[in-house]
Amino acid sequence: MDFRDTPEEASFRATLRDWLGENLPAGWAERDPKAGRSDEAEARAWSRKLYEAGYAGLTWPKRYGGGGAPYTFQAILLEELARTEAPDHVNVIGLGMAGPTLMAHGSEAQKARHLEPILSTEQIFCQGFSEPGAGSDLAALRTRAVRDGDGFVLEGQKVWSSFAHIADWCILLARTNPEAAKHRGLTFFLVDMHAPGVEVRPLRQLTGDPEFNEIFLTGVRVPAEQVVGEVDGGWAVAMTTLLHERGTLGFALTTRLEVLLRRLVTLARIPDGSGRRPADDPLVRDRIARQWVELQGLRFTNYRALTSLVRTGVPGPEGSVAKLHWSESNQRLTKLALELLGPDAQLDGDGAVWNGYWQYQQLRSRGNTIEAGTSEVLRNIIAERVVGLPRSR
Amino acid sequence: MDFAFSEEQEMLRESARDFLATRHPLERVAELADGEPGWDPSSWGRLASLGWLGLSVAEDHGGAGASLVDEAVLFEETGRALYPGPFLATVGLALPALEAAAKTVPDALAAVLAGERSATLAWAEPGGPRTIAESGSAACTAAQDGDGWHLTGTKRLVPDVAIAGVAVVVARAGAAGGQHRGAADAGDRGQPREPAGATDRDQPQERAAADADRDQNGGAGLWLVDLTDGRAVVVPRSTVDTTRRLGDLVLDATPAALLVTPGEAAPVLAATRLRALAAVACEAVGVAERARRFATEHAGQREQFGRPIGSYQAVSHRIADAYVATELARSLAYWAAWCVASDDEQAPVACAAAKSAAGEAAVLAAETAIQCMGGIGFTWDHPLHRLYKRAQWIDAFEGHGAVHRGELAAALLDGPPA
Predict the structure, then answer these.
(1) Which class does domain A237-386 fall in?
(2) How confident is the model at residue A39 (pLDDT cuts 50, 70, 90)?
(3) Could you give the CA distance from residue A307 to residue A323 in angstroms, rounded to a whole number?
(4) Helix or strand or coil: residue A32?
(5) In percent, how much of chain A has pLDDT > 90?
(6) Contact residues, B window 161-200, toward A, CB-based 8 Å cutoff
(7) A61, A190, A380, B87: which could join A226 in a potential S-S bond, CB 3.0 to 4.6 Å?
(8) Which pLDDT tens digit goes with each residue over A74-111?
(9) How far, CA to CA in Å, does A108 sit from each of A111, A228, B385, B413?
(10) Of B178, B249, B256, which is closest to residue B223 (Cα–Cα)?
(11) Quick one: pLDDT at residue A211?
């Protein structure tokens, strides 16, 4: 056990810090925390820069265009990116889900066609799993894929799909065998988002932002070589995707929470008109300290999970622990921030503190316990697969 | 970065778990805890021969030269087994002072390492310091005369004092102790202080002035008192957790050996405190895990309405939450142990975080288990209540969670802006 960087890790971190100092957009640190941080063109340019510097796909094997670095380097990368609040990568689904799934289950041709372009952001990915009638019960999905010559024709609807409006490709689950048991008749497809019959409609979230989308599939032709794994064997492939979704997400989420906590501390130290700081209220102090404890607990739980990832190569179910706890901790933190704002919490936009940054973060946090596995599903996973309790259904 | 225990440490865990399961199954612990003296003294020699007592003591001082990270495994396992002996008191609380005096009082350390003597630490006083953090303001006095040092005063809530062989006592030099004080302390206190509860407590101003004086001078030292020769009066207290009892220690010109010179105890006490916080955090993780396993086992077997109750999410989700809290606490406890072992600058905040989270996680896990087990978990016969009471012991040790969060808040909110 050693929580310090090895000399190699320290040198990687130092190089990375220098690189971030030189390459983040000019005046980045001084920018308003809400406005001017979510520009798509800038995010694309930033993602490209990361790729050119070798920071995209850091842990991917070199033969797929990755850096072949150990997982600890990826953890350092995520920490340092969060520390500087660098722009989000536009291809998080490609990097975190599609890529690892293809490496585990894809054909050589699929790997050659997609992996390097995922890193370079030439191919931006989205995910087509959830449907109006299939959320937590994913295997109940009804999008059909009917064999037609040397391919399939897809018919159906997907929902809650982030990045679909800018995506080139979609990892998508569809039913190929309606006769089989519900987990057995599914197939995992790579769908070209520019193909005829694919229509994307934005969905506006309660924050007002159109962050995710509906995807309508009307007679979309998908060649057979775009099936990942076996026909009717899509469930196992999708499980790999979800494992990676939660397995590697922990670091990014935790470091994002760290940024929020730093901001919360800043907010709590700003005196009001009468010179009082929220940070002088004992109840506020206790709650901020609690947030800090939770954050450190998450951080080191991620690191412990990382060690088992290094040993086994597969993310363990600890990812569910981290995601579950992070989402609830994030909700508490953002709500506390609104309490510190007091009546001003009702303001939004230009007249609000930091242009409504906290108001946005708090509203957005309500999605955290729903997206990427609801808290209820994650508790089931922990109870049944980790703790070993009997199945609930 | 490497966040796992080594192969040797995992082997140590396995052998500890085997030993404790064989010698101290919970039924045996319950039997011991309900009787006198509350433990099996013959187990102590075994702990010595297993090498548990001097694991983190330097090889020069007769120890194994390992670290608190190795001991973390033992604290977790002894917590999990609810081992009723002075292991935390000796290894977690008394060892730093004994090792600090390894050169001057080598016999005391050697006797502990050999398993001949167990030890504890006496820091709290009636109306005086409650925590190790405050213990430098002790009213207990040490006086030096012809044949050595004598301590006078009352110490309270001393862990395992009725079964330990020696006690490390926090006291302040009075009377003829002047030559041992630090220069800043060689001032105005010519008279030995009265034991706690004496008349000067009735004069708050004088007391406050004396406190301020003590705080400024930090003139506390550490002495070793023999608990077996009848010169110190041990008053056992009735306690909630009977697997780790507390007692008072009444000293009246009781002979004592100087371990740490007056004025120099502060760093030793600070190190002791951090070490103890990390140790009880690890213990709490063991307690939490054991309690949560009781709940899991019961919920997997007990059937109501034709199904195991663990298949109902109202039950299983509570258990999942206890698991999550335990795992987060585990991460913090290991981090704290590592920070202390490595003299990392984050040790104080790591220990505060670990202690607050682990104490509360152990209480949560035990309460969850009591609820999930229904009436059975509420009986005296089931060992669960003993885990619950230990969890509460840990939660109360050195202040409940809020006390430690208060320290963290000061570090986060009162320093220069980050």
Answers:
(1) mainly alpha
(2) confident
(3) 17
(4) coil
(5) 75
(6) none
(7) A190
(8) 889 988 998 888 888 899 999 989 999 999 999 999 99
(9) 5, 11, 58, 54
(10) B256
(11) 85
**Residue B301: CB atoms within 10 Å:** 11
Three-state SS at B84: coil
For range B265-272, the mean pLDDT: 96
Confidence of residue B195 (pLDDT cuts 50, 70, 90): very low
**Residue A246's pLDDT is what?**
67
> CA-CA distance, B392 to B280, in Å (whole number)?
11
- What is the model's pTM? 0.92
Return phi, psi of residue A26, to 5°.
Answer: -55, 135
Asked if residue B17 has pLDDT above 70, the reply is yes
Which residues does chain B have within 8 Å of residue A387's beta carbon, measured at their own beta carbons? 292, 296, 316, 319-320, 323
pLDDT band (50, 70, 90) for residue B210 = low
* Contact criterion met (CB below 8 Å) for B361 and B310: no
CA distance to partner chain A, nearest, from residue B332 (Å): 6
What is the assigned CATH class of domain B7-87?
A: mainly alpha
CATH of range B268-413; options 1.20.140.10, 1.20.5.420, 1.10.3720.10, 3.60.20.10: 1.20.140.10
CB pairs A-B closer than 8 Å: 162
Of A1, A5, A286, the CB nearest to B338: A1
Give the CATH number of domain A7-90; options: 3.40.50.1370, 1.10.10.60, 1.10.540.10, 3.10.180.10. Answer: 1.10.540.10
Pick from A4, A5, A289: which is nearest to B409 by CB? A289
